[in-house]
Amino acid sequence: MGEPFYAIGFKITDEASYQALAEEAQQRGTPTHAKREQGVLHGCCWSIGCGLEVWTMLYESKDGLFYADCRPAFRTRHIFSLYPWEIAEYEEDGEAVARGLLVNSSAEIVFELQNITEVDLSRLRDRQITAAVSGLAYRARVLTKTKDPLFAPLAERYPRRKVTEADYAVRGRILSWREIKNPHTTSNLILIDVDAGKLRLEVLINRSDLKGELKVDGWLASEVWLQGHILSDKELQARYEGLDRQVYRGSFWETLRREI
Prior knowledge:
By secondary structure, the protein is mainly beta. The chain has 5 helices and 14 strands. The protein is 13% helix and 49% strand. The strands form 2 sheets. Strands 5, 6, 7, 8, 9, 10, 11, 12, 13 and 14 form a 10-stranded mixed sheet that branches. A 4-stranded antiparallel sheet has the order 1-2-3-4. The protein is globular.
C-alpha cells in the first residue's frame, strides 16, 4: 500500500499513517465533485508543489457518505493523445481506470485516472482525449549493459505476482533527469525521462529506491504504477506556445512600440 506514496516522498507504513495522510489531504486540498446516477463523487486534491499531489475520494450515495480512497499523484508535462479509449469507474472504491490506444501508434496504455472529478466525461465522447501520464516507481536500477526497450504490463511478465492492471515494467534509454524535493517532507526524488521504445515516459522515484548512478544515454529498468490526468480544453490552450493565427498580425508589432 505504501510504495507508490514513497515515490512522491511520503512513507506510509500502516493503516494509521495512511489515514493520517488522507485526513491532512482533506484539510489542505481543493475540493471538486462529479454527479453520478446513484450518488456524487467528492474529490479533493492536495497540491504539494513541484507537480506532487495527494488525492482523496469520497463516494456519497443516497444512503450516506462513505470513505473511499487516498492515493499519490504526479502531474507530469508529458502528454499523450488517446483514441479509442474507455474509462472504467468504480464509484464505491473512488477509482477510475483509463485505457486507450496512443494516436498514430498501436501501443495501449492503462493508467489510474486521478482527476475524475475535474473533467466532464460527457463532453469527451467520440473524440480523442489528451492525458498527462507518468509512472510512480516501486523500484528502479541503472543497467550496466544495453538491452532492448520494454514497456509491458507486469501481470504479463509476472503472472503469479499480485499487481494491478496499471502496473508496468519499463526499460529504456535515459534521456534526461532532474531532482525534486517534496516541499512537505523534504524527501529527495528524481524524475527520469525514459525512451521505452513504444513511448517516452517520465518515471518518478524516491532517490533511496534508485540503484546505480544515472547518466545520459544510460539504461534504466523500473517497475511503475501508471497514473495520469485528463487535460481540459482550457489546460490544452494554456500549454500552447506557438503563433496564434486568430490574433491580428499588426498587434504583434504594437506591443513592441516604444513609448514617447
